[in-house]
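Troubleshooting: if your tokenizer reports a length mismatch, compare your output against this known-good record of 346 residues.
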Amino acid sequence: MSGAKKPKILLLGEIEHAQARKEFDSLSTLADIITPQSSSPTDFLAECRRGAFDGAKAVYRTFQSVAITGRIEGEVVEALAKAGVRFIAHNGAGIDIPTCTTHNIPVSNTPTAVDAATADTALFLLLGALRNFNSPLLSLRSNNWRGGSTPTAPPPPPLGHDPQGKVLGIIGMGGIGRNLAGKAMALGMRVVYYNRRRLGAGKEGEGGARYVGFEELLRGSDVVSLNCPLNEGTWHLLGEKEFRMMKKGAVVVNTARGAVMDEEALVRALATGQISSCGLDVYENEPAVHPGLMDNPKVMLLPHMGTWTEETQTGMELWTIGNVREALEVGRLRSQVGEQGGLGYD
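Known-good structure output:
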């Protein structure tokens, strides 16, 4: 780049881990790093339109920066495109992929960095829901042991179920789904899966995860785990019709995106016993959670903790920085989101 003006990197949010901060700082040999001065989405859009970010070739964005930028969608994407942004390396959620595609801005995610931690979370929720652990957890903290210890205390929960021999249906057999499959098979579960495309034999796992149709998975699974992306085709993928197809008393786990499932329909299915329990880490309107879920002791709830580990968060930051480096050095992203499969580079 000698003799040429350096490009710019627009940093949206903080790099929180020391190893990743050191790696990000090293990008200063390739580009000038700039940050917004704004403190609200309205100010950020105005700052962008004033030309403050002109010349920014790549954006590093964290989910936490949404408080400053709002969602990266609509007018914001348009303004970033006019500023010259050609790549967005994204560490989190909250980007309008179709609009970025329209403006020819490739977007990357952090696919492999999140696999193990998210699958661990799904397995935790699966076991908790299958064993009815949530109710006695609440009773214990209320000094009522597992329930029924006093005449006015809630009764003990019904007996739970062992995972051994149960059928786990995984919807979305990407990295997280495959990681979960391996862990579930180690517990003696049989795994079936539904995916956009059948995996090659080498990726179906040594235990023999079996590819089935969507309805066959719903009808035959004791536990259904959602591990697919949220897009127009997966919005409310599970709703009233789908819950009625499932086994009476089935368990549902969601560590994907909240809107992949119709929460209102889930609350009704739980009330009738069609779904016996569920484990959720994501919600349709998070951070708001449907009161019918909050008030149901049979439901295992986590506040979007799937990747909430030191190791995974560091790995996500390093992966995102790697995408920025590749954008600057090679002119492409190493993990462009699948929805942009047809988007090229100029």
